[in-house]
Specification:
2 domains
Length: about 500
Protein backbone atom coordinates (compact mmCIF):
# COMPACT_ATOMS: atom_id res chain seq x y z
CA UNK A 1 0.00 0.00 0.00
CA UNK A 2 2.87 2.34 0.84
CA UNK A 3 4.55 1.54 -2.50
CA UNK A 4 1.28 2.20 -4.26
CA UNK A 5 1.00 5.57 -2.48
CA UNK A 6 4.51 6.51 -3.60
CA UNK A 7 3.66 5.51 -7.16
CA UNK A 8 0.59 7.75 -7.16
CA UNK A 9 2.65 10.62 -5.76
CA UNK A 10 5.30 10.19 -8.46
CA UNK A 11 2.60 10.04 -11.15
CA UNK A 12 1.08 13.27 -9.87
CA UNK A 13 4.45 15.02 -9.82
CA UNK A 14 5.17 13.85 -13.36
CA UNK A 15 1.79 15.17 -14.48
CA UNK A 16 2.36 18.48 -12.71
CA UNK A 17 5.54 19.06 -14.71
CA UNK A 18 4.49 17.34 -17.93
CA UNK A 19 1.32 19.42 -18.33
CA UNK A 20 3.03 22.85 -18.61
CA UNK A 21 5.88 21.35 -20.67
CA UNK A 22 3.49 19.95 -23.29
CA UNK A 23 1.38 23.13 -23.22
CA UNK A 24 4.38 25.41 -23.79
CA UNK A 25 5.61 23.20 -26.62
CA UNK A 26 2.25 23.32 -28.41
CA UNK A 27 1.83 27.05 -27.78
CA UNK A 28 5.32 28.20 -28.80
CA UNK A 29 6.67 25.74 -31.37
CA UNK A 30 5.44 26.77 -34.87
CA UNK A 31 2.96 24.28 -36.32
CA UNK A 32 -0.13 24.09 -38.51
CA UNK A 33 -2.10 25.41 -35.54
CA UNK A 34 -0.26 28.73 -35.89
CA UNK A 35 -0.97 29.09 -39.58
CA UNK A 36 -4.78 28.96 -39.82
CA UNK A 37 -5.85 32.05 -41.81
CA UNK A 38 -7.51 34.77 -39.76
CA UNK A 39 -6.98 33.08 -36.40
CA UNK A 40 -3.32 33.68 -35.60
CA UNK A 41 -2.01 31.53 -32.78
CA UNK A 42 -5.36 31.27 -30.98
CA UNK A 43 -5.99 27.61 -31.97
CA UNK A 44 -2.52 26.69 -30.72
CA UNK A 45 -3.14 28.41 -27.40
CA UNK A 46 -6.52 26.70 -27.00
CA UNK A 47 -4.94 23.31 -27.77
CA UNK A 48 -2.14 24.00 -25.28
CA UNK A 49 -4.58 24.87 -22.49
CA UNK A 50 -6.80 21.87 -23.27
CA UNK A 51 -3.79 19.53 -23.13
CA UNK A 52 -2.62 21.10 -19.88
CA UNK A 53 -6.05 20.52 -18.33
CA UNK A 54 -6.32 16.98 -19.72
CA UNK A 55 -2.90 15.97 -18.34
CA UNK A 56 -3.60 17.50 -14.94
CA UNK A 57 -7.02 15.86 -14.82
CA UNK A 58 -5.68 12.46 -15.88
CA UNK A 59 -2.74 12.57 -13.45
CA UNK A 60 -4.70 14.33 -10.70
CA UNK A 61 -1.67 16.56 -10.28
CA UNK A 62 -3.90 19.19 -8.73
CA UNK A 63 -7.41 18.96 -7.28
CA UNK A 64 -9.86 18.66 -10.18
CA UNK A 65 -11.64 21.86 -9.17
CA UNK A 66 -8.37 23.82 -9.33
CA UNK A 67 -7.60 22.50 -12.81
CA UNK A 68 -11.14 23.38 -13.89
CA UNK A 69 -10.42 27.05 -13.12
CA UNK A 70 -7.42 27.22 -15.48
CA UNK A 71 -9.46 28.82 -18.34
CA UNK A 72 -10.43 31.73 -16.09
CA UNK A 73 -6.79 32.82 -16.01
CA UNK A 74 -5.28 31.52 -19.24
CA UNK A 75 -8.00 32.39 -21.77
CA UNK A 76 -7.86 36.16 -21.26
CA UNK A 77 -4.06 36.16 -20.93
CA UNK A 78 -3.56 34.35 -24.26
CA UNK A 79 -6.54 35.93 -26.03
CA UNK A 80 -8.14 32.61 -26.91
CA UNK A 81 -11.44 34.16 -28.01
CA UNK A 82 -9.90 37.22 -29.69
CA UNK A 83 -12.19 39.66 -27.86
CA UNK A 84 -9.58 41.52 -25.84
CA UNK A 85 -8.62 40.81 -22.23
CA UNK A 86 -11.93 41.69 -20.57
CA UNK A 87 -14.03 40.23 -23.37
CA UNK A 88 -12.16 36.94 -23.11
CA UNK A 89 -12.38 37.02 -19.31
CA UNK A 90 -16.15 37.40 -19.50
CA UNK A 91 -16.46 34.63 -22.11
CA UNK A 92 -14.29 32.32 -19.98
CA UNK A 93 -16.47 32.93 -16.91
CA UNK A 94 -19.86 32.44 -18.61
CA UNK A 95 -19.70 28.61 -18.64
CA UNK A 96 -19.35 28.60 -14.84
CA UNK A 97 -22.87 30.05 -14.51
CA UNK A 98 -24.46 27.92 -17.24
CA UNK A 99 -27.99 26.71 -16.52
CA UNK A 100 -26.77 23.12 -16.31
CA UNK A 101 -24.58 24.09 -13.34
CA UNK A 102 -27.71 25.14 -11.46
CA UNK A 103 -29.61 22.05 -12.58
CA UNK A 104 -26.88 19.87 -11.12
CA UNK A 105 -26.73 22.04 -7.98
CA UNK A 106 -30.46 21.59 -7.41
CA UNK A 107 -30.14 17.87 -8.06
CA UNK A 108 -27.32 17.57 -5.53
CA UNK A 109 -29.42 19.42 -2.95
CA UNK A 110 -32.30 16.98 -3.51
CA UNK A 111 -29.86 14.10 -3.09
CA UNK A 112 -28.47 15.63 0.12
CA UNK A 113 -31.98 15.92 1.55
CA UNK A 114 -32.74 12.30 0.70
CA UNK A 115 -29.53 11.23 2.43
CA UNK A 116 -30.22 13.35 5.52
CA UNK A 117 -33.56 11.69 6.20
CA UNK A 118 -32.66 8.18 4.97
CA UNK A 119 -35.27 8.28 2.21
CA UNK A 120 -32.89 6.73 -0.33
CA UNK A 121 -32.12 3.90 2.09
CA UNK A 122 -35.81 3.21 2.70
CA UNK A 123 -36.52 3.08 -1.04
CA UNK A 124 -33.61 0.70 -1.65
CA UNK A 125 -34.66 -1.66 1.16
CA UNK A 126 -38.27 -1.77 -0.05
CA UNK A 127 -37.15 -2.53 -3.63
CA UNK A 128 -34.97 -5.42 -2.40
CA UNK A 129 -37.75 -6.75 -0.19
CA UNK A 130 -40.23 -6.61 -3.05
CA UNK A 131 -37.92 -8.48 -5.48
CA UNK A 132 -37.13 -11.23 -2.95
CA UNK A 133 -34.28 -12.73 -0.92
CA UNK A 134 -33.68 -16.07 -2.65
CA UNK A 135 -29.98 -15.83 -3.72
CA UNK A 136 -30.65 -15.08 -7.37
CA UNK A 137 -33.33 -12.55 -6.49
CA UNK A 138 -31.20 -11.05 -3.75
CA UNK A 139 -28.36 -10.35 -6.18
CA UNK A 140 -30.77 -8.90 -8.74
CA UNK A 141 -32.53 -6.88 -6.05
CA UNK A 142 -29.23 -5.36 -4.96
CA UNK A 143 -28.52 -4.33 -8.56
CA UNK A 144 -31.98 -2.83 -9.15
CA UNK A 145 -32.16 -1.01 -5.81
CA UNK A 146 -28.66 0.45 -6.18
CA UNK A 147 -29.26 1.55 -9.78
CA UNK A 148 -32.61 3.14 -8.86
CA UNK A 149 -31.01 5.24 -6.11
CA UNK A 150 -28.00 6.14 -8.26
CA UNK A 151 -30.27 7.70 -10.88
CA UNK A 152 -30.96 10.54 -8.44
CA UNK A 153 -27.92 10.87 -6.15
CA UNK A 154 -24.20 10.55 -6.81
CA UNK A 155 -22.77 7.11 -7.53
CA UNK A 156 -20.27 7.54 -4.68
CA UNK A 157 -22.98 8.33 -2.12
CA UNK A 158 -25.03 5.40 -3.42
CA UNK A 159 -22.15 2.96 -2.99
CA UNK A 160 -21.39 4.26 0.50
CA UNK A 161 -25.05 3.79 1.49
CA UNK A 162 -25.51 0.33 -0.03
CA UNK A 163 -22.24 -1.18 1.24
CA UNK A 164 -23.39 -1.59 4.89
CA UNK A 165 -26.67 -3.14 3.69
CA UNK A 166 -24.75 -5.63 1.56
CA UNK A 167 -22.36 -6.45 4.40
CA UNK A 168 -25.25 -7.02 6.82
CA UNK A 169 -26.89 -9.40 4.36
CA UNK A 170 -23.64 -11.31 3.89
CA UNK A 171 -23.10 -11.64 7.64
CA UNK A 172 -26.58 -13.11 8.01
CA UNK A 173 -26.04 -15.53 5.13
CA UNK A 174 -22.70 -16.66 6.59
CA UNK A 175 -24.22 -17.17 10.04
CA UNK A 176 -26.74 -19.52 8.42
CA UNK A 177 -23.74 -21.55 7.17
CA UNK A 178 -22.05 -21.72 10.59
CA UNK A 179 -19.83 -18.76 9.79
CA UNK A 180 -18.42 -20.16 6.55
CA UNK A 181 -17.27 -17.30 4.33
CA UNK A 182 -19.19 -16.77 1.07
CA UNK A 183 -16.27 -15.76 -1.12
CA UNK A 184 -17.84 -16.00 -4.56
CA UNK A 185 -21.36 -14.87 -3.67
CA UNK A 186 -19.98 -12.14 -1.42
CA UNK A 187 -17.72 -10.81 -4.18
CA UNK A 188 -20.65 -10.75 -6.62
CA UNK A 189 -22.88 -8.92 -4.14
CA UNK A 190 -20.17 -6.30 -3.51
CA UNK A 191 -19.49 -5.87 -7.24
CA UNK A 192 -23.25 -5.50 -7.79
CA UNK A 193 -23.15 -2.40 -5.58
CA UNK A 194 -20.25 -0.84 -7.50
CA UNK A 195 -21.45 -1.68 -10.98
CA UNK A 196 -25.08 -0.67 -10.40
CA UNK A 197 -23.93 2.61 -8.83
CA UNK A 198 -22.09 3.41 -12.06
CA UNK A 199 -24.72 2.15 -14.51
CA UNK A 200 -27.70 3.64 -12.66
CA UNK A 201 -26.30 7.16 -12.97
CA UNK A 202 -26.71 6.93 -16.75
CA UNK A 203 -30.49 7.03 -16.39
CA UNK A 204 -31.14 10.74 -15.71
CA UNK A 205 -29.60 14.12 -16.42
CA UNK A 206 -28.64 14.57 -12.78
CA UNK A 207 -27.44 10.99 -12.22
CA UNK A 208 -23.76 11.78 -12.76
CA UNK A 209 -21.57 14.69 -13.78
CA UNK A 210 -20.76 13.20 -17.18
CA UNK A 211 -24.43 13.48 -18.17
CA UNK A 212 -24.43 17.19 -17.38
CA UNK A 213 -21.20 17.67 -19.33
CA UNK A 214 -22.75 15.84 -22.28
CA UNK A 215 -26.04 17.76 -22.41
CA UNK A 216 -24.21 21.03 -21.78
CA UNK A 217 -21.87 20.29 -24.70
CA UNK A 218 -24.81 19.56 -26.99
CA UNK A 219 -26.52 22.80 -25.99
CA UNK A 220 -23.43 24.98 -26.33
CA UNK A 221 -21.81 23.49 -29.41
CA UNK A 222 -24.61 21.88 -31.41
CA UNK A 223 -27.48 24.10 -30.34
CA UNK A 224 -29.40 21.00 -29.24
CA UNK A 225 -31.29 21.52 -25.99
CA UNK A 226 -31.98 17.98 -24.77
CA UNK A 227 -34.96 17.92 -22.40
CA UNK A 228 -35.10 15.90 -19.18
CA UNK A 229 -37.52 13.41 -20.72
CA UNK A 230 -35.51 13.15 -23.95
CA UNK A 231 -32.38 12.43 -21.96
CA UNK A 232 -34.21 9.73 -19.99
CA UNK A 233 -35.25 8.24 -23.34
CA UNK A 234 -31.52 8.13 -24.16
CA UNK A 235 -30.15 6.78 -20.89
CA UNK A 236 -32.82 4.90 -18.96
CA UNK A 237 -33.49 2.13 -21.53
CA UNK A 238 -29.77 1.35 -21.52
CA UNK A 239 -29.86 1.01 -17.72
CA UNK A 240 -32.87 -1.31 -17.97
CA UNK A 241 -31.10 -3.34 -20.67
CA UNK A 242 -27.65 -3.56 -19.11
CA UNK A 243 -28.51 -4.30 -15.46
CA UNK A 244 -29.80 -7.83 -16.34
CA UNK A 245 -26.55 -8.45 -18.24
CA UNK A 246 -24.54 -7.37 -15.20
CA UNK A 247 -26.65 -9.73 -13.10
CA UNK A 248 -25.98 -12.62 -15.49
CA UNK A 249 -22.19 -12.08 -15.41
CA UNK A 250 -22.15 -11.74 -11.61
CA UNK A 251 -24.41 -14.77 -11.20
CA UNK A 252 -21.94 -16.91 -13.13
CA UNK A 253 -19.37 -16.06 -10.46
CA UNK A 254 -21.78 -16.21 -7.50
CA UNK A 255 -22.78 -19.84 -8.06
CA UNK A 256 -19.50 -21.10 -6.60
CA UNK A 257 -20.75 -21.05 -3.01
CA UNK A 258 -24.43 -20.23 -3.02
CA UNK A 259 -26.15 -19.95 0.37
CA UNK A 260 -28.75 -22.70 0.62
CA UNK A 261 -31.01 -21.13 3.17
CA UNK A 262 -30.96 -17.73 4.77
CA UNK A 263 -32.81 -15.29 6.91
CA UNK A 264 -32.28 -12.34 4.58
CA UNK A 265 -35.89 -11.26 5.04
CA UNK A 266 -35.14 -10.75 8.71
CA UNK A 267 -32.14 -8.58 7.83
CA UNK A 268 -34.23 -6.37 5.57
CA UNK A 269 -37.00 -6.16 8.15
CA UNK A 270 -34.47 -5.23 10.83
CA UNK A 271 -32.92 -2.53 8.64
CA UNK A 272 -36.37 -1.10 7.89
CA UNK A 273 -37.31 -1.27 11.58
CA UNK A 274 -34.19 0.75 12.44
CA UNK A 275 -35.48 3.47 10.11
CA UNK A 276 -38.77 3.54 12.00
CA UNK A 277 -42.01 4.97 10.58
CA UNK A 278 -41.94 7.63 7.90
CA UNK A 279 -40.79 10.86 9.49
CA UNK A 280 -42.14 14.30 8.66
CA UNK A 281 -38.84 15.14 6.98
CA UNK A 282 -38.96 12.03 4.78
CA UNK A 283 -42.51 12.80 3.68
CA UNK A 284 -41.62 16.40 2.89
CA UNK A 285 -38.52 15.46 0.89
CA UNK A 286 -40.49 12.77 -0.97
CA UNK A 287 -43.18 15.32 -1.86
CA UNK A 288 -40.65 17.87 -3.13
CA UNK A 289 -38.79 15.19 -5.06
CA UNK A 290 -42.01 13.90 -6.66
CA UNK A 291 -43.08 17.43 -7.59
CA UNK A 292 -39.71 18.24 -9.16
CA UNK A 293 -39.67 14.96 -11.11
CA UNK A 294 -43.21 15.58 -12.36
CA UNK A 295 -42.34 19.14 -13.45
CA UNK A 296 -39.25 17.86 -15.28
CA UNK A 297 -41.26 15.18 -17.04
CA UNK A 298 -43.92 17.72 -18.08
CA UNK A 299 -41.24 20.19 -19.12
CA UNK A 300 -41.98 20.53 -22.83
CA UNK A 301 -45.72 21.36 -22.61
CA UNK A 302 -45.25 23.58 -19.56
CA UNK A 303 -42.37 25.45 -21.18
CA UNK A 304 -44.42 26.21 -24.30
CA UNK A 305 -47.16 27.57 -22.00
CA UNK A 306 -44.69 29.67 -19.97
CA UNK A 307 -42.74 31.11 -22.90
CA UNK A 308 -45.23 33.89 -23.91
CA UNK A 309 -45.50 35.47 -20.43
CA UNK A 310 -41.73 35.24 -19.94
CA UNK A 311 -41.12 36.94 -23.29
CA UNK A 312 -43.68 39.58 -22.35
CA UNK A 313 -41.75 40.29 -19.17
CA UNK A 314 -38.28 40.07 -20.78
CA UNK A 315 -38.60 40.72 -24.55
CA UNK A 316 -36.45 38.53 -26.77
CA UNK A 317 -35.89 35.91 -24.10
CA UNK A 318 -35.78 32.31 -25.31
CA UNK A 319 -36.90 29.94 -22.57
CA UNK A 320 -34.74 26.91 -23.29
CA UNK A 321 -35.28 23.54 -21.69
CA UNK A 322 -32.15 23.85 -19.59
CA UNK A 323 -33.37 27.15 -18.12
CA UNK A 324 -36.74 25.63 -17.22
CA UNK A 325 -35.18 22.51 -15.68
CA UNK A 326 -32.60 24.53 -13.73
CA UNK A 327 -35.38 26.75 -12.39
CA UNK A 328 -37.34 23.72 -11.20
CA UNK A 329 -34.22 22.28 -9.57
CA UNK A 330 -33.37 25.52 -7.77
CA UNK A 331 -36.99 26.04 -6.64
CA UNK A 332 -36.98 22.52 -5.20
CA UNK A 333 -33.66 23.21 -3.48
CA UNK A 334 -34.99 26.52 -2.13
CA UNK A 335 -38.09 24.85 -0.70
CA UNK A 336 -35.94 22.18 1.00
CA UNK A 337 -33.67 24.79 2.56
CA UNK A 338 -36.51 27.12 3.56
CA UNK A 339 -38.47 24.30 5.23
CA UNK A 340 -35.30 22.97 6.89
CA UNK A 341 -35.65 19.65 5.13
CA UNK A 342 -31.94 19.84 4.42
CA UNK A 343 -29.49 21.25 6.92
CA UNK A 344 -26.46 23.37 6.19
CA UNK A 345 -24.34 20.69 7.84
CA UNK A 346 -25.68 18.18 5.28
CA UNK A 347 -25.09 20.64 2.43
CA UNK A 348 -21.45 20.96 3.49
CA UNK A 349 -21.05 17.29 2.57
CA UNK A 350 -22.12 17.95 -1.03
CA UNK A 351 -19.17 17.75 -3.48
CA UNK A 352 -19.25 21.42 -4.47
CA UNK A 353 -16.05 20.96 -6.46
CA UNK A 354 -18.14 19.07 -9.02
CA UNK A 355 -19.80 22.36 -9.99
CA UNK A 356 -16.39 23.87 -10.77
CA UNK A 357 -15.51 20.73 -12.71
CA UNK A 358 -18.63 21.14 -14.85
CA UNK A 359 -17.89 24.82 -15.40
CA UNK A 360 -14.31 24.06 -16.36
CA UNK A 361 -15.50 21.36 -18.76
CA UNK A 362 -17.86 23.79 -20.49
CA UNK A 363 -15.15 26.48 -20.54
CA UNK A 364 -12.62 24.14 -22.15
CA UNK A 365 -15.16 23.25 -24.84
CA UNK A 366 -15.95 26.94 -25.36
CA UNK A 367 -12.25 27.72 -25.87
CA UNK A 368 -11.83 24.93 -28.40
CA UNK A 369 -14.83 26.26 -30.32
CA UNK A 370 -14.20 30.01 -29.94
CA UNK A 371 -10.55 29.82 -30.92
CA UNK A 372 -11.24 27.98 -34.19
CA UNK A 373 -9.49 24.82 -32.96
CA UNK A 374 -12.66 22.77 -33.40
CA UNK A 375 -12.64 23.41 -37.15
CA UNK A 376 -9.05 22.20 -37.36
CA UNK A 377 -9.91 19.04 -35.38
CA UNK A 378 -12.90 18.43 -37.63
CA UNK A 379 -10.64 18.46 -40.70
CA UNK A 380 -8.22 16.03 -39.03
CA UNK A 381 -11.05 13.65 -38.15
CA UNK A 382 -12.69 13.67 -41.57
CA UNK A 383 -11.44 10.10 -42.27
CA UNK A 384 -13.14 8.92 -39.05
CA UNK A 385 -16.34 10.82 -39.88
CA UNK A 386 -16.46 9.13 -43.29
CA UNK A 387 -16.44 5.65 -41.76
CA UNK A 388 -19.71 3.74 -41.44
CA UNK A 389 -21.64 4.67 -38.30
CA UNK A 390 -21.02 1.25 -36.75
CA UNK A 391 -17.25 1.71 -37.08
CA UNK A 392 -17.42 5.22 -35.60
CA UNK A 393 -19.44 3.93 -32.68
CA UNK A 394 -17.08 1.02 -32.06
CA UNK A 395 -14.00 3.28 -32.04
CA UNK A 396 -15.62 5.97 -29.87
CA UNK A 397 -17.09 3.50 -27.37
CA UNK A 398 -13.96 1.37 -27.02
CA UNK A 399 -11.79 4.47 -26.61
CA UNK A 400 -14.12 5.86 -23.93
CA UNK A 401 -14.30 2.65 -21.92
CA UNK A 402 -10.53 2.17 -22.23
CA UNK A 403 -9.66 5.72 -21.17
CA UNK A 404 -12.10 5.69 -18.26
CA UNK A 405 -10.23 2.67 -16.87
CA UNK A 406 -7.14 4.81 -16.22
CA UNK A 407 -8.68 8.27 -15.84
CA UNK A 408 -11.80 9.72 -14.27
CA UNK A 409 -14.95 9.43 -16.35
CA UNK A 410 -15.34 13.22 -16.33
CA UNK A 411 -11.83 13.74 -17.68
CA UNK A 412 -12.49 11.10 -20.33
CA UNK A 413 -15.77 12.57 -21.54
CA UNK A 414 -14.29 16.09 -21.47
CA UNK A 415 -11.53 15.05 -23.85
CA UNK A 416 -13.49 12.83 -26.22
CA UNK A 417 -16.57 15.01 -26.70
CA UNK A 418 -14.25 17.71 -28.04
CA UNK A 419 -12.41 15.50 -30.53
CA UNK A 420 -15.04 13.02 -31.75
CA UNK A 421 -17.11 13.73 -34.88
CA UNK A 422 -20.07 15.91 -34.01
CA UNK A 423 -22.59 13.19 -34.61
CA UNK A 424 -25.37 12.90 -32.03
CA UNK A 425 -25.35 9.08 -31.98
CA UNK A 426 -21.55 8.98 -31.56
CA UNK A 427 -21.49 11.62 -28.83
CA UNK A 428 -24.40 9.95 -27.02
CA UNK A 429 -22.64 6.59 -27.12
CA UNK A 430 -19.51 8.23 -25.70
CA UNK A 431 -21.48 9.76 -22.82
CA UNK A 432 -23.01 6.40 -21.90
CA UNK A 433 -19.69 4.55 -22.23
CA UNK A 434 -17.99 6.98 -19.83
CA UNK A 435 -19.92 5.35 -16.96
CA UNK A 436 -19.10 1.80 -18.04
CA UNK A 437 -15.67 1.01 -16.64
CA UNK A 438 -15.81 -2.04 -14.40
CA UNK A 439 -12.34 -3.61 -14.42
CA UNK A 440 -10.18 -1.64 -11.94
CA UNK A 441 -10.65 -0.27 -8.42
CA UNK A 442 -9.30 3.09 -9.57
CA UNK A 443 -11.79 3.30 -12.44
CA UNK A 444 -14.56 4.92 -10.36
CA UNK A 445 -15.09 5.70 -6.64
CA UNK A 446 -17.73 2.93 -6.23
CA UNK A 447 -15.23 0.37 -7.53
CA UNK A 448 -12.71 1.50 -4.92
CA UNK A 449 -15.32 1.60 -2.13
CA UNK A 450 -16.46 -2.01 -2.54
CA UNK A 451 -12.90 -3.21 -3.15
CA UNK A 452 -12.22 -2.27 0.44
CA UNK A 453 -14.90 -4.71 1.66
CA UNK A 454 -12.40 -7.57 1.75
CA UNK A 455 -14.58 -9.83 -0.41
CA UNK A 456 -13.05 -8.91 -3.77
CA UNK A 457 -9.68 -9.95 -5.11
CA UNK A 458 -8.10 -7.81 -7.82
CA UNK A 459 -7.83 -10.64 -10.41
CA UNK A 460 -11.51 -11.41 -9.79
CA UNK A 461 -12.56 -7.80 -10.35
CA UNK A 462 -10.36 -7.51 -13.44
CA UNK A 463 -11.69 -10.74 -14.96
CA UNK A 464 -15.35 -9.93 -14.28
CA UNK A 465 -14.94 -6.25 -15.11
CA UNK A 466 -13.11 -6.88 -18.37
CA UNK A 467 -15.93 -9.13 -19.57
CA UNK A 468 -18.45 -6.42 -18.69
CA UNK A 469 -16.30 -3.78 -20.41
CA UNK A 470 -16.40 -5.82 -23.62
CA UNK A 471 -20.13 -6.40 -23.25
CA UNK A 472 -20.65 -2.67 -22.68
CA UNK A 473 -18.87 -1.78 -25.92
CA UNK A 474 -20.89 -4.31 -27.91
CA UNK A 475 -24.21 -3.43 -26.29
CA UNK A 476 -23.71 0.34 -26.65
CA UNK A 477 -22.90 -0.03 -30.35
CA UNK A 478 -25.95 -2.25 -30.98
CA UNK A 479 -28.15 -0.10 -28.72
CA UNK A 480 -27.17 3.02 -30.64
CA UNK A 481 -27.65 1.46 -34.07
CA UNK A 482 -30.98 -0.19 -33.25
CA UNK A 483 -32.52 2.48 -31.03
CA UNK A 484 -30.55 5.52 -29.94
CA UNK A 485 -29.87 7.08 -33.34
CA UNK A 486 -33.63 7.34 -33.88
CA UNK A 487 -34.17 9.05 -30.51
CA UNK A 488 -31.47 11.76 -30.27
Amino acid sequence: MEAEGKGVLVWRRVGLVLGPAVALTVALVPSALHRIPGLGARPAYAAAIALLMAIWWFSEALPIAVTACVPLVTYPVFGVFGRGFWGDARRAAEPFVDAYIFLFLGGMTLGAAMEQWGLHRRLALHIMKRIGTEPRRLLFGMLVATAAVSMWISNTATAVMMLPIGMALLRQLELARDGKRLGDFGASLMLAIAYASNVGGIGTKIGTGTNSIFVGFLSEKLGYDMSFVRYMAVGFPFVALFIPLVWWVLWLNARGDLPEGSDSDAVLERELALLGPWSRGERSVAAVFAAAALLWILGDPLRSWLTPPVQGFVPGTKLQGKHYEATVAMLAAGVLVATRCVSFAQLRKVPWSTLLLLGGSFAMAAGIEGSGLSGFITLLLEPLARLPLAAQLAIATAATVGLSAVASNTATVNLLLNVLPRSLPVLSACAIAASCDFALPAGTPPNAIVFGSGYIRLPQMMRTGFLLDLLAVVVIVLYTLAYLRFVV
